[in-house]
Amino acid sequence: MAARDGDDGRLAEPVSSIVERLRGHRATIAIIGLGYVGLPLACTIARKGFSVVGFDIDETKVDQINAAVSYIGHVGSDEIAEMRSAGRLSATADYARLPEADAIIVCVPTPLTRHREPDLTYVVETTEAIAPHLRPGQLVVLESTTYPGTTRDVMRPILERGGLRSGRDFFLAYSPEREDPGNAQFSTAAIPKVVGGDGPEALQLATALYDEVVSRTVPVSSLEAAEAVKLTENIFRSVNIALVNELKVVFEAMDIDVWEVIEAAKSKPFGYMPFYPGPGLGGHCIPIDPFYLTWKAREFDVVTRFVELAGEINTAMPQRVVDRTIEALNQRQGKASRGARILVVGVAYKKNVDDTRESPAFKIIELLEKRGSDVSYYDPIVSEIPLTREHRELAGRQSVEFSEGSLSAFDAVIICTDHDAIDYRQLVAWSRLVIDTRNACARNGIAAEHVIKA
Predict the structure, then answer these.
(1) pLDDT in tens, 366-388
(2) Is the distance from CB of 369 to CB of 338 less than 8 angstroms?
(3) What is the spatial distance between Cα 436 and Cα 320, in angstroms, rounded to a whole number?
(4) Pairing mode of beta strands 341-345, 374-378
(5) What confidence category does residue 4 fall into, taking pLDDT thresholds of 50, 70 and 90?
(6) Pairing of strands 412-415, 434-436
(7) Statement: residue 242 has pLDDT above 70
(8) Do residues 450 and 414 lie in contact, with contact meaning Cβ atoms separated by under 8 Å?
(9) Range in 5-19, 73-87, 124-138 with the lowest mean pLDDT
């Protein structure tokens, strides 16, 4: 454990010794925030031989981890049990245990306010919880997605309140999370990590840590550059998804199938990368990250027109799905939206995961119910809608049964999430009207007059 020499303000243990402890996997790592980023990271680091202590204010999560029970679909309980039995993973809600750690990694949510401005509440509260327990020699890494300047301007002053100084007594770094839940090809350990430090020693320590955990580390020149990397990655996706969503609308008016166009276009081996339209953006990153940059840009009197336009297009997609559904109900069945029974298929934000954060399905349900429709949902992975910030009124609703009797009772079925576990042939056979926002039916070789792409 490193300690500072009070006479000269230097660490009693040189940074090189801390680096060697990290490289020798003899360090203890604290993970704060045991959600979709923190828990996979904790398991990955523990699997590499480190001792990991997970921290979360939700004591239910703490109890589940200590009982070797996973609450995230793509993290197996057997994986947690293995790390628990090896003595390399534990969980607690007691921040007084933070001094045990050589490195503290913060993985807490960074949502938006209702006015689409950054909400750093979790980052600030977590940093304030760390500060009283911070000891000399510790490395603190923020992984939460945020705007450039957060680590330096928000976290560092809080951590320095007790008299310790970043770069002298403790070390501060930023490394953006790059989780892709449900992607079997790219696990946490297989994804390269970008690292930026508050000074060369912080960068050296953070690089030494992640070198032992992931396939490759990519050091950058500053905290701000590392923060900007994550925004760039997700804004790239947001803008390109907005482009294909707009093309879908244009081609639809021309009676051209945008999905066919994309499949043909991606045969080009250079200069093109396929993106796909859908019912709107979901997940914690892509619907949120662009607004972190647009907000920060205003501080420098820069208008991010391109980024904001992409956000507007993507945000409008749930309403378009609702409009297409109501139009089809009226044209095909002579029904109005009021009183129509509608089933939303899939409430996870992406296929084959149980993560519902920012799912466009919730907005679609809300818009339909405002029109007077009676809306239910089916999802083979999400049996009950969890509590969410934006759609608290939906919490506790349960998935209906997937059966002929159930599906045939609905006037329309909207495919929002194209889970592989769904039997699309049966769905089409049992449904009166199918609104397919993911091209799931055509992709499975199913064509029917009552299937409409949206």
Answers:
(1) 999 999 999 999 999 999 999 98
(2) no
(3) 12
(4) parallel
(5) very low
(6) parallel
(7) yes
(8) no
(9) 5-19
Task: Based on the residue annotation, tell me whether 285 is a catalytic residue of this protein.
Answer: yes
Residue type, 310: A
Report domain extents, the chain.
4-221, 246-453
pLDDT at 6 over 90: no
Left (φ > 0), alpha (ψ -120 to 50) or beta: where does 106 sit? beta
CA 439 to chain centre: 23
Strands (E), 364-411: 374-378
CA distance 28 to 45: 10
Question: 163-168: long-range contacts at Cβ-Cβ below 8 A with a sequence spacing of 24 or more?
Answer: 164/4, 164/134, 164/136, 165/9, 166/198, 166/199, 166/202, 167/198, 167/199, 167/201, 167/202, 168/9, 168/10
For the stretch 40-63, what's the b/e string if a residue is b when 16 or more beta carbons lie within 10 angstroms of its beta carbon? bbbbbbbbeebbbbbbbbeeebbe
pLDDT tens-digit readout, 331-363: 999 999 999 999 999 999 999 999 999 999 999
Fold (CATH) for 4-221: Rossmann fold (3.40.50)
Instruction: Give the integer Cα–Cα distance in Å for 312 and 315.
Output: 5
pLDDT in tens, 426-442: 999 999 999 999 999 99
The answer to whether 217 and 211 are in contact (CB under 8 A) is yes
Residue 12: the pLDDT is 63
4-221 and 246-453 share one fold: yes
* Strands in 326-423 per DSSP E: 341-345, 374-378, 412-415
End-to-end CA, the chain: 59
> Distance between alpha carbon 277 and the CA centroid of its chain, in Å?
19
Residue range 246-453, CATH number: 3.40.50.720
d(CA 224, CA 366): 38
Pair type for strands 412-415 and 341-345: parallel
**Amino acid present at 110:** T
Six token digits for residue 92: 């607690």
